[in-house]
Amino acid sequence: MNILSFQDAGIRYGDRPALSGLTLDVAPGEIVGLIGESGSGKSTAALAAMGLLPDGASVTGRVLLDGRDWSGLSEREGDRLRGRVAGMIFQEPLTALNPTLSIGAQVAEAVRATRGLGRRVAWVAAQALLARVGLNISARRYPHQLSGGQRQRVGIAIAIAGGPRLLIADEPTTALDVTTQAQIMDLIVRLVRDDGMGLLLVSHDLGLVAQVADRIAVLKEGRLVEQGAAMEVLSRPTAPYTWSLLDRSRHRPLRAHAIDPAAPPVLSVTGLTRTYSGERQGLFGRGAPVHAVADVSFTIAPGETLGVVGESGSGKSSLLRCVLGLDRPQAGTILLNGRSVQDSRGTELRGLRQQMQAVFQDPAGSFNPRQNVGRIVAEPLHLLDEPLTMAQRRQRVERVLSLVGLSPDEADRYPHQFSGGQRQRIALARALIVEPRLVVLDEAVSALDVSIRADILDLLARLSAELGLAYLFVSHDLSVMRAVTDRVLVMKQGRIVEQGPTVQVLSHPQHPYTAQLLAATPDLDRVLAQRA
C-alpha cells in the first residue's frame, strides 16, 4: 500500500490553479524526486501531502496519507497524522525553529506531541534523536548558536521524532554549502533506508535528485508532464519540458569580453586579516581568537569575474564585509580604483560606495515591502554628488529596469507581486543605477531554479560586456563558478588554499580541499555516468 497518493488532485488558490490533475504515489522505502521550475506546484504538493494548505485553498480529487483522505479529516485527526505518519523538513530551518527555545526543548516538544511521553522521558528521547542525526552538542543550545547544517539536523530530528513512515523534504539543502549539503542528504537517505520510510524530495537541483531518487516526477505549471524511473527520465526524457530543464541545468552563458591584464585593477586586496574574539569560556575566561580572514590577497581587473568558493565558516562572508566597507580589518589594504576603502570617510567613502554595489542571496529580505519598485531601485541615488530631480530619478529608474529586462511600467508595483527571478533583476537594477565599476554578488543565484538561474547568468554576462562591469562572485555552487567566472579563489578557514583560472582549478585541482569540494558537488552528468 502506498503511504502517499495523489489521485487526480487539483488545488486552487482563489481563481488561480496551483495543481491540476496530479496523480502520483510514494511507497514505503521509495524515494521520489519532484522537480520543476518555481511556480510549477512543487511546494503546493508538499503542503497538500501534510494537510497544511492555507485557508481558502480548494481541493478536488483526493490526497491520501496512509490511505486516509485529508479532505475528510477533522483538525484533531490531521494533527494525529502529522508527525506520527508523515514528517516534513523545510527549506530554511532558522525560520522553522523557535528562536526562544533550546534545540532540545523543541525536539522534546515534538516527541511529546507525537508519542505522548512525559517531560523527562521526552527530554531523554530528544537527546537520543539529536545524537542520531549527528549532533553531539549540548541540547540546551539555541538555534542562533548553530550553523546552517546543524540547524537543518535539528529540523530533521523534529521531523522523525514521531517515527513517521513518510518524510517530505522541501528544498532541504538550498542554502547549504556543498559539503554540508552532501552530509545532510546522506543523513536523510540513511534514515529513510534504515527505517523503511518513503521520501518525497522537492528540489530544483537535478544533480542532487539524480543522486538519490528511485523515481522522478516532473511538474510544469501545476501539471505532471512526465514521471518514471530516475535514470530513464534523466537519460531519455520524453517530454520537451524535461529536455528543456536538463539543457538549462547545463547552461553556460556566452561571455564576449576581453580582459586587459595591464589595466589597473578595479579592486586590489593585500594581506587582509580579520580576527574576532573567541567564544567566552566560563565567567571570566576568553576563548582563542578566531581568524575569519588570514593574510588574503587578490586583484580584480576591469571586466573580470572573480569567484570565491568555500564551505560555511571559510571566511567568505567576512571577506565580503571588509571589501564592502561594512567591517574593519585588523591588517591589510583594500583599494578600490586605487583608493583605500577602510581609510575613507564622509564624502570620499560615499564616492567609493557608488563605485561598488552588492546583490545578496535573498533580494526580498533586502527590500522594504511597503515601498514600490521605483523607490527601492532609486535608493542608492543618494550616493551621487549632485541630487537629481524627481523626473531625473524616474528616468534613471526606468532606464535601469529596461537594462535588466523588466518593463519601466513595473516601477509602480511592489516586491510581493514579482517572482524570485524578477526580484533578483530588481536587486541588480538597484545595484546598477549608480553605474558602479564593481558588483559584489553573494550567493545571488543559489535559491533560483535552473531556468531562472540560466537567465540571470546570461543577464550578468551581457551587462559585464556592455558596461565593462567587474564581478566578485561568491557561491557554493561550483557549476555556476565554472560557467561565469574567469578566475576562482578557494578559501578554507580564512585562507586562500588555491587560486587560478577557473577551468584549471576546477578541472585539475591541486589542493585536496578543492578536490573534496568538487567531489561533494552534485553533478548531473557525473551521476548519470555512475548510475548507468
Task: Show the helix and strand layout.
Layout: E1 4-13, E2 16-26, E3 31-35, H1 42-49, E4 57-65, E5 68-69, H2 75-81, E6 86-89, H3 93-96, H4 103-115, H5 119-132, H6 148-159, E7 166-170, H7 178-195, E8 198-202, H8 206-212, E9 215-220, E10 223-229, H9 230-235, H10 240-249, E11 267-276, E12 280-281, E13 285-286, E14 290-300, E15 305-309, H11 316-323, E16 331-336, E17 339-340, H12 346-355, E18 356-359, H13 373-378, H14 390-403, H15 420-432, E19 438-442, H16 450-467, E20 470-474, H17 478-484, E21 487-492, E22 495-501, H18 502-507, H19 512-520, H20 524-531
Parallel strand pairs: 3-8, 3-9, 6-7, 7-8, 15-20, 15-21, 18-19, 19-20
Antiparallel strand pairs: 1-2, 1-4, 4-5, 9-10, 11-14, 11-16, 12-13, 16-17, 21-22
Helix pairs in contact: 4-5, 4-6, 5-6, 6-7, 7-19, 8-20, 14-15, 15-16
